[in-house]
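Quick start: what a row looks like.
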Amino acid sequence: MLTLENAVEPARKTELRFEDFAGGDGRRDLFEKADALEAFLRSRPSYTRGLGLQMLGAADRRVPIVDDDGTRREVVMLGSNSYLSLTTDPRVVAAAKAACDEYGYGMGAVSLYAGTTDLHKRLEAMIAGFYGTEDALIFPSGYSANVGVISSLCAPGDVVINDASNHASIFDGAKLSGAEVKVFLHRNTKHLERILSRLPDAQKGRLIVTDGVFSMDGDIAPLAEIVGLARRWGARVLVDEAHALGVVGATGRGTAELEGCAGNVDLTVGTLSKVPGAIGGYCAGSRNVITYLRYYARTYFFSTSIPAPVIAGLIEVFRILRNESTEREKLWRNIGYLLTGLTAMGFNTGDTRSAIIPVIVGDEEKLGRFNNELRRRGVFTNLVSYPAVRRKECRLRVSVMSSLTREDMDHALRVFGEVGRELGIIP
């Protein structure tokens, strides 16, 4: 029986960590590591405190919750990716309700069979138009978009070159493809160029993949430089705009717009679960490539289509993104206010240039106490530690919403300051 003492041979005389329960050596029953992890978590209640939280309302600026100890409280929401507050926009909600009456609540088939409605085709056309591409394809999730696109386009003999901080779905798609995988240092284009310069001339299948806005740091890829290197060395470029859509760029069209290379990126992938506030993913690109993906991206071909009511809400979302800027302007005012306040108090907020503000703590035990005490005092944030980031860079991820009021933000900053000083995180 796997126990806390013998979970992993090298860990006998050191404190166990989450990575000690992953994988295996083939000599133990598959479920033993699950039993050992359960014992580990029971011995460290601070690791799981807050995981039983239930939201009792929509992801709005203030949300009633039930904590894992049964306590009910209202919190200022700093943990939602609905940056433009579109999850509660009355126009989006109304569109989804109306489509439910007409199309039902589910599709019952994959997209290539009976799972595509006129709404699905309309949304794909809107996404393509938004990015100025010939076509676009909708996936059931952002994760499946990256996995499906990369694993279908790349194969053994090709090479996928990833930024070290890319989303897990990108690495999973690259691994599944069977292609060679290389990694360049985060946002380091000199390292990327060294990798490209050393590729064999015969290895023509080259794909560079980067997040636009990096999900754990909020910083932005040097996309124009990456595109320039790709053209020089004969590579294709895929950018994941999950956290950039609707937020960065003069009109919210993402990193390529911000970096001045719109129209020069081969493939734009994103999720419909951040600013759009729903679920799903997409890939925008040339008509021929999108057609290829419809037949060969297994996460598309073998997945039931997104329900029509969700698609209807997303159509309204892209109409708003295309025609309005009020919420984006409010969002950036809120980002500036919170970031200035947190930095002035002495918190380490990294190099963010987006609606994601990391508050780096670097001590997992202290981080857990910080997060729990913030929530107890009415502020909800997301705790991020291994394996999402390195343990010494563990942090809270503050997600800013356009609907936050000055009162909400002042309360959050006051609580951050109080708890941060109590725990010795700031002076």
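That is the whole record. Residues 261 and 307 are 34 Å apart (CA to CA). The two ends are 47 Å apart (CA to CA).
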